[in-house]
Amino acid sequence: MSALTPDWLNPDPWLTRAQNTGTRAVRQALATECPGIAELAALLSPAAGEALDRLATRAQFLTRRQFGRTITLYVPLYLSDFCKNGCVYCGFAADRRQPRRRLEHDDIIAEMDTLKVMGFEEILLLTGERTPQADFDYIRAAVALAAERFDLVTVEVFPMTREEYHGLTEAGCTGMTMYQETYDPAVYERMHRWGPKRDYQYRLETPARALAAGLRTAGLGALLGLADPVRDALALFQHVQTLRKQYWRSGISVSFPRIRPQLGGFTPPFLVSDRFLVQVICAFRICMPDLPLTLSTREPAWFRDGIAGVGINKMSIASRTTVGGYHDGSTTDDGLPACPSSARELGQGQFKVSDNRSIENFCAMLKSKDLEPVFKNWDAVYRDIAQSA
Question: How many CB atoms lie under 10 A from the CB of residue 2?
Fold first, then answer.
């Protein structure tokens, strides 16, 4: 174990367990009333992969028990693609030769007003690394504009200090997302060639700083494919467990991003198959039944259709991974802003979007599966009460 990792983060013994689990241990894990990391290790094993139908059935039952037949919907808005990091897998990396831009004040308002018309009440604001073009003051101003329009405002930006996160809370921010990318320190160092993001430990501690500063939610995840996905899943689980124990009044959620095509042509060293991704999602749902689990438009439509309500209870739709892109004048037959083509996204955004369906078509799919699309499960009045408390 690296000196960079804290005592609570040691997935290696559980990785060994996962590699050596048999069918009997899988059955026991599925029958355990209060499963933990031992059961997660069993459910991530090759033996559990042979029983994927049973995992999916159990995951669907637990998802419906906790969240009903609802799928919460949100939309990402990229504010800036300026970056000074050297991440080998990212389309925003500093050495990618492409035009860079940020949304100015009027642009931000136009994009947000367009998203509001589309029906969204939850928005996720994103940028690259902290730069002069997109610093804390810029993010705080964007959060304030979003808080005037949306009930739920979260950010997926650069790591901040506790004081800065408190400033975002005062501006109306309710949560943050921070992917560790990989929990393997050696792989992390190779994947992040230069820039502030090379600081593994500072990034690892970011969700705790945000929750300590007053943000209500923190979203975690590992970018599956950078390192051994079983090890990363086990470490992610340990991270979630630790935060939930310390910040038990806060909400933790988990996402399951896989490497997608992007400018630079990076090939992930580990292949994460569709079947294994389903296994990871089901294993997390079984071992943490009340944990919100999210899947983005990184994944293709057919995959998202199949996993909706089977572990996953939250999804993004109508996503752009370019800066802005919603307020461009193009519309669909239903009068709503149109999604860009995959060709337009590839090479211009952070990664390639795989599910380009309109809101209308996506919601129709959910309803055909007897699932209810939910655009609002939070009211701004609670945010205001929290700020004045």
Answer: 12
Q: Which residues 6+ apart lie within 8 Å of 144 measured at CB?
A: 171, 172
The CA angle 313-87-18, to the nearest 5 degrees, is 50
> What is the residue-wise DSSP string for 264-315?
T----SS---HHHHHHHHHHHHHHSTTS-EEE-TTS-HHHHHHHBTTTB-EE
Integer Cα distance of 29 and 355 in angstroms: 34
Residue pLDDT, tens place only, 279-319: 999 999 999 999 999 999 989 999 999 999 999 999 999 88
Q: At what angle do helices 105-117 and 136-147 cross, to 10 degrees?
A: 30
Distance, in Å, from the CA atom of 182 to the CA atom of 221, rounded to the nearest integer, reads 9
| CATH for the stretch 60-388 | 3.20.20.70
The backbone torsions φ and ψ at residue 134, rounded to the nearest 5 degrees and listed phi first, read: -140, 85
Half-sphere exposure of 51 (CA within 13 A, CB side): 21
Extract the tokens encoding 290: 């009340």
